[in-house]
Every structure is written in structure tokens, then in C-alpha cells.
Amino acid sequence: MTEPAKQPSRLDRLRARYHWLDHAVRAGQRYQDVKGDFYAAGITYFTIFAMFPLLMVGFAAAGFALASRPHVLEDIESRIKATVSGDFGQQLIGLIDSAIQSRTSVGVIGLATAAWAGLGWISNLREALSQMWDQRGEPQNFVRTKLSDLLVLLSTFVAIVLTIGLTALADPSVMTKVLQWVGVPHPDGLGGLLRLASLVMSWAVSWMLFSWMIARLPRESVSFRSSLRAGLMAAVAFEIFKLVGSIYLRSVVHGPAGATFGPVLGLMVFAYITARLILFATAWAATSKDNMRLEPVPAPGPAVISPRVGPDEGLSSRQTLAAMAVGAVGALGVSRLWRNGRD
């Protein structure tokens, strides 16, 4: 009796009906199979860790800038004296002077530490994106891998700086100043148009950045065209997340505890959610029908022939009687033929 065929579940029926749902389930399975949350946590760690040497480099750059412009330094010190009175103002001025004097050592240490943390960040990010694309190539030479990571780190840094610059330009106030500098008369009357243009520019820049990261940062570069849809999805989600994050920061920085820990926690959450967003978008691109690859079928194992050897039980009683009857008939036939031959 045959068993009844198993009926498909409701999720299976919905996946068969809606292509986007089936794609989302496949992307989620790929994300979970390669431990996407684990890689997102590692990316977040190196992102936060790299902030401190970058701040050191920023302080060193500010020290070099102030050392070359004494009048700006005098203006800052006078403002501090006018705003902060007493010993605390003098301590701030002394801190600025010590930062300017140690700008070279701080800059060198900051650059070395930033390079080390940046290589760890880009290595973890590239490995995570490669896993999302199911790229499991042979391990390369250590020096060659680090040089490749360094080149990718520099290109990523340039891309992020350009993105930040274009995003800053997308701010209506900044764009108004730029238009005034170019010579556009009365740019303040274009408030609604400037806000719309800034939103479109910010979204377009995020789209190009995410698409580039999905296609070019894995160990083996893939088609840029195949990452455009995933980059578009990531850009839309990222803009929504930025809006929600700005609301969160405005709501938590009012109290003393929020002002102290709110930005740090906000930065950690921002880095973690952004990392998960990039990885899931990469899994979405990798599991599209254009990029799905057939799984290799392994060759079957060698056939094993094992003969079964058992005890000889001999003939049964029925078989013995049948054999005796056949023998008697055969003997009778041979005897009759022999007699006929003599006659």
C-alpha cells in the first residue's frame, strides 16, 4: 500500500506563487548558512576599533593645520578664554598646545594603527561578501592577499570619502551655499526643489556605493550589472534606516546618560545594521536566478561486491525422490534400447 503524497505547506505554495518571496527565502537561507550575523559582528568590531586611530589622525591633521596658521590658533585660544573661565580653560589650552607639539608622533601612530585596523576590517568584509557569493577558492599567498586588501582598502576609502562629500552636498543648506558661490540668484526660493534634489542625490550615491561594494569587494569580482538591483534595495533600506537613526539620536541625547552613551551605542547599532544590510543584499544578488549555479554532483563511490557464503543443506526429500525416479526411467530406457539393438 503506497503512502499518500505529502502536501506542500502554505509557505511552499506562497513561494511558488510569488517570485519575490521565494527569492527572499533563498537569500535568507544563504545568509544563515554562511553565518551572516557572525560576519556582521566582526565587521562592526573592526569598524568601531578603526574609529580611534582615525581620530588620532584627525587630531594630528588639525595640529599641523593650526601650527601653520598661528592667527587661527590665537583666535581659538581667545575664544576658549572668553567662554571657559578658570583653570579648566587653561587646561583646554594646554591640551591643544600639547596636541600640536606631539602631532607628528600622534599622526604616525594613528596611521599605523589605522592601517592595521583597516586591513582587518576590509579582510573581514571581503571574506563575508565572498561567502555570500559562495566563493570558496584556494587560499592565496599571505603577502599577496594583504597587498590586495590594501589596494581594496584604499579604493574603498576613496569611494567612501566621495560618498560623504556628495552626501554633504545633498544637504539643502550646503547646496544653497554652493549655488550662491556659483552665482545662482536667490537660491533660497528653491527650498522644496533643493530638498527633493538632495534626497535623490543621497539615494543615488548610496545606490552606486552599495552596488560597487557588492560586485567588486568579493575575492572574485562579479558582474556589476547583477548587483544593481541588490544595491537599489540596500540604498532604499539604508535611507530609511538613516531617517530612523536620526530620530533615535535626537531622542536620546537630551539627558546626561544619553549624551554620554547614546552616540556610542548609536554608532555600534548603525555599523551592525549597515553590515547586515550589505550582507543580506549580497545574498539577494547571489541567489538571483541569473547568478544561481548548479551544485556539482559528486561521482558515486566504488561498487563493493560481497558474495554470501552459506552451509550446503543438501537435497530435500522431495528432490531426492524426483532424482531417483528420473534415474530409474533413464536406466529403463537405456536397457530397452540395448535389447532392441541385440535383436
Describe the structure.
This protein is mostly helical and 343 residues long. It has a domain of 206 residues. The chain contains 12 helices and no strands.
Low-confidence segments, ≥5 residues, pLDDT <50? none
Shape: elongated
Helix content: over 70%
Classification by helices and strands: mainly alpha
Beta content comes to under 5%
Total number of strands: 0
Overall mean confidence score, pLDDT: 76
* CA-based gyration radius: 38 Å
Number of helices: 12
What is the H/E order?
Answer: HHHHHHHHHHHH
Largest sheet: none
Q: What is the straight-line distance between the termini?
A: 69 Å
Features of this protein?
343 residues, mainly alpha
Topology:
Layout: H1 10-17, H2 19-33, H3 36-67, H4 70-83, H5 87-101, H6 103-132, H7 142-169, H8 172-182, H9 191-216, H10 228-252, H11 256-286, H12 317-342
Helix pairs in contact: 1-2, 2-11, 3-5, 3-6, 3-11, 4-5, 6-7, 7-9, 9-10, 9-11, 10-11
Summary of the model, kept short:
It contains 12 helices and no strands.
